[in-house]
């Protein structure tokens, strides 16, 4: 059965590694519209970081940012929101810093950090088209945070920090990897699977009629919520194992390949 909705991850999936849309992707999005299949974006980025993609992709659908912590309708109005419990937020910041990661907090519509020279700031800024602000202390902002992030060029350090933090926080927050160099912390209900269900509901589509495409472990809840899961060729073996279809990587027109395979299901 052909899906009526495709929910897509962004970085590592619908954009290339240079963070731009391939021409093939823009054309494939048009083919989706022609086939009557809706397209919505669900990302670890803040919702504002998805705005530049809406026009070239022809989007008129809700989107979700911060791994599902903030869902907005097509007009940019918030329809679902989950902030991290303050105690869990404080614990996450302390542990990530202790583990040697650079820590960022997204709260109150701001991107807050302590070290303006930290690795990956320029890369993230390119992705989300959002300025940052250096603060001496995160404490005043931990009661309204949508996401806490840790970053490091040491991927093994990130993996170890994520595992330890997940165990420490238990059910207070969810810890996921949106990139090899990132650790994302969000509210327990802030995951891409829950966000996908909210978006499907807003569009009047049964989740069973939804396809999901992604490349990282934070996309797995989205895979579980959808009737069809598609993994990018640059995904890990674990992510590929959770998908029914695997396509080429995000620098090799994999997203366009996925669209054509989904359309062919009709």
In total, how many beta strands?
14
Widest sheet: strand order? 8-7-6-9-11-10
β-sheet strand percentage: 15-25%
The oligomeric status of these chains comes to single chain
- CATH-defined architecture of the largest domain: 3-Layer(aba) Sandwich
Order of helices and strands: EHEHEEEHEEHEEHEEHEHEHEH
Shape, per Cα inertia axes = globular
Helical element count?
9
Q: Report on the biggest sheet.
A: 6 strands, mixed
Radius of gyration: 17 Å
Q: Label the structural class.
A: alpha/beta
Under CATH, the homologous superfamily of the largest domain reads HAD superfamily/HAD-like
CATH class of the largest domain: Alpha Beta
Protein name: Cof-type HAD-IIB family hydrolase
GO molecular function: magnesium ion binding; phosphatase activity
Keywords: Hydrolase
Organism: Acidisoma cellulosilyticum
Folded structure, characterized:
It is a single chain. The chain is α/β, with parallel strands linked by helices and 266 residues long. The chain folds into two domains: 5-81 and 190-264, HAD superfamily/HAD-like (Rossmann fold), CATH 3.40.50.1000; 86-186, Hypothetical Protein, Haloacid Dehalogenase-like Hydrolase, Chain: A, domain 2. The protein has nine helices and 14 strands. It has helices at residues 23-34, 51-57, 86-98, 121-128, 155-169, 192-202, 220-225, 237-241, 254-264, and strands spanning 5-8, 38-41, 63-65, 70-72, 78-81, 102-107, 110-113, 132-134, 145-151, 174-176, 182-186, 210-214, 228-231, 245-246. The strands form three sheets. Strands 8-7-6-9-11-10 form a six-stranded mixed β-sheet, with helices on one face. A five-stranded parallel β-sheet has the order 2-1-12-13-14, sandwiched between helices. Strands 3-4-5 form a three-stranded antiparallel β-sheet, covered by helices on one side. Helix 7 (220-225) links the parallel strand 12 and strand 13. Helix 1 (23-34) packs parallel to helix 9 (254-264) and helix 3 packs antiparallel against helix 5. The longest helix is centred in the middle third of the chain and has 15 residues, at 155-169. The radius of gyration is 17 Å and the shape is globular. 50% of the residues are buried. The model has no long low-confidence stretch (mean pLDDT 95).
